[in-house]
Design brief:
Layout lengths: L10 H11 L5 H6 L6 H8 L5 H15 L2 H16 L10 H17 L5 H13 L14 H6 L6
Amino acid sequence: MSDGAAWQGNIKARLYERVRERGYDSLTAFADARPAVPLFVLADELGNDVAAVQVLSGLLYEAERSRRVTRFVRDLLVRLLSQSLPDGWPAVMDDANVFKVAKALGSWSAYTPETHQERGRLAREALRANPPPAGWRPLGPDDELLRVLLPDEEA
C-alpha cells in the first residue's frame, strides 16, 4: 500500500469487487465472518491496494443504511481491543497496559461517528470505573458486556 495504490481508481468499486470475489454480498457480511479481526487485517485480506480506513468507511456506510450504527460501534471496539489487547483485558494496569487500553479506547473514540460520541464516552467511563475481568476479550459485537454498555437503540 505504500505506493499509494489504495487511493487510485474507484475505491468503492474495488472494495465491493473484492468482497464479492470472496463470496460475500456486503462488506459487513465479510467482516462478520471475521469477528474481532483488526481492520488492517481485513484490508490486507482484500488486497494490498485496500486501506483499513476504506474498510472502516465502508462498514460505517453500510451500518448507516441498515440503521445498525450501534452494532458497528461495538464491532469497531471489539476490533480495536483485539488489536491493542490480543490477550484480553490486562490483569495489572501498569504503565504499559494503561497505554494499550488508552490506545484502543482513544482510537475507538476517534472513529466513532458523531451520533454515538456521547454514548461512547459513557461506555469508556464505565470501562474505566469498573474494568472487565482480567482476560476479557470480546469476540464480536454481540458480547454481553458490550450490549449492556451500548444497547441497540436504532429504529
